[in-house]
Amino acid sequence: MPKKATIYDIAREAGVSTATVTRVVRGDSNVRDATREKVQRVIDAHAYAPSASAQHLEHGQSKTLAIVMPAVINPYFTRIYNEAYKEAEAHGYFAWLFQIQENKPIPRELVDELIRRRMDGVIFAGGIWSTERSGLADALERLRHYMPVAIICPPTVKLDCICIHSDLVSCSRLPVRHLHALGHRRIAFIGGSMQFRDTSKRGENFLEELRALDLPDDPAYHVDAGYDAESGERAVLRMLTGLERRRWPTAIIAFNDQMALGAIKQLKQMGLHLPDDMAIIGCDNQFFCPYTDPPLTSVDLHPEEMTQSAVRELLVAREGNRTQSFSMMREATLIVRESCGAKLGYRKRT
Amino acid sequence: MPKKATIYDIAREAGVSTATVTRVVRGDSNVRDATREKVQRVIDAHAYAPSASAQHLEHGQSKTLAIVMPAVINPYFTRIYNEAYKEAEAHGYFAWLFQIQENKPIPRELVDELIRRRMDGVIFAGGIWSTERSGLADALERLRHYMPVAIICPPTVKLDCICIHSDLVSCSRLPVRHLHALGHRRIAFIGGSMQFRDTSKRGENFLEELRALDLPDDPAYHVDAGYDAESGERAVLRMLTGLERRRWPTAIIAFNDQMALGAIKQLKQMGLHLPDDMAIIGCDNQFFCPYTDPPLTSVDLHPEEMTQSAVRELLVAREGNRTQSFSMMREATLIVRESCGAKLGYRKRT
DNA sequence: GCACGAAATGTTATCGGTAACATTAAAAAT
DNA sequence: ATTTTTAATGTTACCGATAACATTTCGTGC
């Protein structure tokens, strides 16, 4: 690597002071045209741009927001990241993605790194954050000394920061009511691991909705599982092989679309015809939903909107000194496709 | 926000000099236990960690690698990013993702931002980089003054930097030969937009492979399209409606798995039975491939391995002053699933 | 009790850039 | 031509952290 040019190099080579170089870089008007051109030529020759670190030191702003999430391999998180990046950019900030392991506590080293880099704000996203095990509260306590924090996740523990979450009630109510209206009575749920509060919360909400409609809340209709497609396969296999055929559910609600993907595969493998023999609803409305066979009905949590709010509130908290915590909830939406037979008309089921 | 504690604040509050604080932070042994504890208490109380920007200024290293890619919404790029993040971390660096628009030139502002932030290296990934229109050569010329650059993309223009790419020949040869061996003779290709060199290169390679096997290279079997699932749908519709039924291909190779997803949907909609009436092969071996119906045979380009090499070579270039350019090619692999009927045995087709 | 070496701690220049302030050069007014 | 005003440019302290170097404190031996 060649020696990286600094403002001193540019100043020396152009025969001016560093102040003049700064003026040229920032487009200050009080510079003679001849001088400006002379300096600009040297700048161009070295592709010089002022060091962000030095500016940070001077101004106390890194102009950077951190997004902390489980690996972006999951399309739900991809959507959050994309929106955060766009929204940050719109406000003159850059978004920096930090990945953590799902179901593991937030590493202390990561928190320190965020402080070291003097982020202007952090967004934590993901279902697991609400658990005590994640250590989110501790992380928050440390980060609070240096930057505002927003979390996009269900509110199981009351935390003193910007809290944005989707409405878990509508998230369960929408698919259950939809299936009920189509005549389904035995509705099952294959969900994320129960050891985590928020996901079990989804399970609880689901049960409540069933009871509200006087539908059977048989524990056999609720299988605990992971989060990926393979978990969906396994969950379906486990549930159906554990039940006499006449007690099989007529509809399955999956924790997310990946699981639905696996469920669909497994159901077909067992010789069922979809959606006639079994209806399915996923969650997250991922890009592949229109392309499953049958196309997958899914709940959209509107991660983009939540993220947009998170970024904005973070910046508000930075500027003004908002001390009181902020909370916002976004209703979910059901995107109806063919996987429940909705478009094929109503059919009475027992 | 409370005032962010600096090393001076810690030093004052602990009643020591900044040098001692640094020693405690870095675990230097020449500190009395009593002093260490006293300082550590103050550090803990403020969650203090030394500013990375100040350290950067002092040491001249940002310990950061930039990954520049089209929006990470595409799973292929997700895989690259994930691997870059992991590999960078393993070397004590952090990876920072910067997104750009597909098919648009690299924004000048982005290049300047990378220079401003004094990245220790940049990786450009994506099919489009090889085109003259992307302005990659210009960006490279500017970045070169401050950091080493690696590109993960097909080599259409010879660039003086670390170049890593998948073997486009095997990428076309594998699916064509596989289909040929299964008895297919009329093989079609639905591909990314021809205006970009590298993707058209895929098309050219495809034609060469057909000719090498004495198969018809009818232009009607080659439809230009976008990159997403919807493009796949449209491409299939356009191709088949433009051909008499008896001239329909018996197999389709798609530019990527998303397109294959769309193609499958469209083919089913047209009443075809897969894989009997039409075989399909995608590219990228994305997570949903095992879950399409039928499960999708796909070409894996091994983006993880390429990324790993990119990160490593970047760091080598940083340490030693490697001046000559580096080039590496990775063979592709065909992941056989049911979408060509491969597992259903050989069937003669005319 | 003093000298000496080692251990502990402090002082300061530096990294790259900025902005307030100081100075010089040029243009305008007398 | 000289003063006044304004425009152009330079000087310098500072941001936070570090490391080389300087200094102080301590423990040990005599």
Highlighted features:
Rossmann fold; disordered C terminus; 12 strands; DNA-binding; alpha/beta
Structure characterization notes:
The structure is a homodimer of 350-residue chains. With 350 residues, chain A is of the alpha/beta class. Chain A folds into three domains: 7-50, Orthogonal Bundle (434 Repressor (Amino-terminal Domain)), CATH 1.10.260.40; 62-166 and 303-330, Response regulator (Rossmann fold); 168-301 and 335-344, Response regulator (Rossmann fold, 3-Layer(aba) Sandwich). Chain A is built from twelve helices and twelve strands. Chain A has helices at 7-14, 18-26, 33-46, 52-59, 75-90, 108-116, 136-143, 168-181, 197-212, 229-241, 257-269, 303-319; strands at 64-70, 94-100, 121-125, 149-152, 162-166, 187-191, 222-224, 251-254, 279-283, 297-300, 327-330, 333-335. The first copy, chain A, has a six-stranded parallel β-sheet with strand order 2-1-3-4-5-11, covered by helices on one side. Chain A has a six-stranded mixed β-sheet with strand order 7-6-8-9-10-12, sandwiched between helices. In chain A, strand 3, helix 7 and strand 4 form a beta-alpha-beta unit. The longest helix of chain A has 17 residues, at 303-319.
